[in-house]
């Protein structure tokens, strides 16, 4: 799979008949859907797009110009990770990722909602540090503490059960990125094992899940992307080995 991000002026690849996901490789929301599709062993293709210089055809699949967007039939798509993932879980029930209990499903949604403050604090710390408020670090750690408490209460390996489910795949992409914050000069956001032993163990267990292992990026890679974006030139294609291998040295000017 090429990880080149298509941009303004690039042609939309032909539709193959498979599910097709429009994504950005460093987007946690798009990663949510990738993990769900991997967990369900679905056959799909991914088209990565440059969100700073969006292809003209992206709006045909995502009216807001956001990712992820899922093309489920040629020319027909839905967007927003939460909408897509519930659709996939209902459309392809062979590997169920939600509880059959309506109350448990509601509780999972509450866990995600209560974690939103930590996600917001991450974005500010990573991409707009000058806008950090005095309570941002507190909000971040309150979100982590609440999540660790919920793991303790449930007493299972993952939030869903002894196998990960939709709630786990919804939260993990942000936890993956949280580990990059100390590497970009934000040590106060560290996920310390001394303080978060249960949560860190959960995070390490999630990294071993095949659906995640196939897509996971380490903290150093996330830090490089964050730094490139903050310099005003986000390096969307840093993982595209096809671009590297095909580069030829330029001829010296006479």
TrEMBL record:
Residue ranges constituting the GST N-terminal domain according to the UniProt record: 17-96
Family membership: Belongs to the GST superfamily. Omega family.
Keyword Magnesium: no
Domain GST C-terminal: 101-234
Pfam families attached to this UniProt entry: GST_C_2 (PF13410), GST_N_2 (PF13409)
PANTHER family reported for this sequence: GLUTATHIONE S-TRANSFERASE OMEGA, PTHR43968
Cellular component GO terms, alphabetical: cytoplasm
Keywords tagged on the record: Oxidoreductase
Gene Ontology molecular-function annotations: glutathione dehydrogenase (ascorbate) activity; glutathione transferase activity
Top-level taxon of origin: Eukaryota
Name under which the protein is recorded: Uncharacterized protein
Annotated organism of origin: Helicoverpa armigera
Any one GO biological process: glutathione metabolic process
InterPro entries: Glutathione-S-Trfase_C-like, Glutathione-S-Trfase_C_sf, Glutathione_S-Trfase, Glutathione_S-Trfase_N, GST_omega, GST_Omega/HSP26, Thioredoxin-like_sf
SUPFAM superfamilies xrefs: GST C-terminal domain-like, Thioredoxin-like
């Amino acid at each position: 799979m090429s990880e080149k991000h298509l941009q303004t002026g690039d042609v939309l690849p032909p539709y193959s008949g498979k599910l097709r996901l429009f994504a950005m490789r460093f987007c946690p929301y798009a990663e949510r859907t990738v993990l769900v599709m991997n967990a369900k062993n679905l056959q799909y293709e991914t088209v990565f797009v440059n969100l700073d210089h969006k292809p003209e055809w992206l709006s045909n699949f995502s009216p807001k110009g956001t990712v992820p967007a899922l093309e489920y039939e040629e020319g027909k798509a839905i967007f927003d990770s939460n909408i897509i993932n519930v659709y996939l879980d209902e459309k392809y029930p062979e590997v169920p990722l939600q509880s059959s209990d309506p109350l448990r499903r509601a509780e999972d949604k509450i866990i995600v909602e209560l974690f939103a403050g930590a996600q917001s604090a991450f974005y500010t710390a990573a991409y707009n540090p000058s806008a950090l408020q005095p309570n941002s670090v507190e909000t971040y750690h309150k979100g982590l503490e609440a999540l660790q408490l919920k793991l303790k209460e449930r007493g299972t390996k993952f939030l869903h059960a002894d196998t990960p489910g939709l709630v786990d795949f919804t939260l993990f992409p942000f936890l993956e990125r949280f580990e990059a914050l100390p590497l970009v000069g934000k040590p106060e956001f560290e996920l310390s094992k001394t303080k978060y032993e249960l949560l860190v163990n959960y995070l390490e267990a999630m990294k071993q899940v095949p659906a995640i292992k196939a897509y996971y990026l380490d903290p150093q890679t996330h830090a490089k992307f964050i730094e490139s974006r903050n310099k005003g030139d986000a390096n969307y294609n840093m993982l595209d080995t096809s671009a590297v291998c095909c580069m030829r040295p330029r001829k010296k000017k006479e």
